[in-house]
Amino acid sequence: MVPEMNHFDEQGNAVMVDVSGKDSTLRTAWATGTIRVNEAIMDAVVNHTVKKGDVLGVARVAGIMAAKQTWSLIPMCHPLCIRKCTIDFETDPKNLEIRAISCVKVEEKTGVEMEALTAVSTALLTIYDMCKAIDKHMEITKIHLVRKTGGKSGDFSYD
Hints:
Alpha-Beta Plaits; 28% helix; elongated
C-alpha cells in the first residue's frame, strides 16, 4: 500500500499540510549519523586540542540550534515548540568514527523526525567545519531516523 502524499493539493502544487484539526500529542524522535575521520582528527577531538575549540561541545550546541530552526530550512516543516533536544556523541577511535545521536521531543500536532535528523546533520557538519584545517578527507554517513513515538502514524523503529 502506498501512503497518501498530502504535501500536494488537487492541482499538484506543493502545500504545507493542514494540521489545524489534529490533537497535540507527545512525540519524540531519535536520529543518528556518523563522521569518519583520520587518526589526527580523532586524537585532536578526543584530547581537546583542535585550535577552533571544543569540537563536540560546539557541535552539540549547533545541533540543538538547528533542531529549533528546522522549519526555516525545510520548506514544508511546521514551526514547533521543542520541549527537549539532546545531542550525544560516541567516539570510536578503532574505526575512526564519531557518532552523533539526537533526541527531540515535542507536544504538538505534527511529528519531530525532521528536527532530529537536522540536529544530527548539523552537528556532524560542525565537526567537519571545525576539523577541516587538520584534514578535509572526512565522510559523513549513515544519517537516519532510529526511532519515533507518538502521532497518527504510530511508533517507528529502524531495524
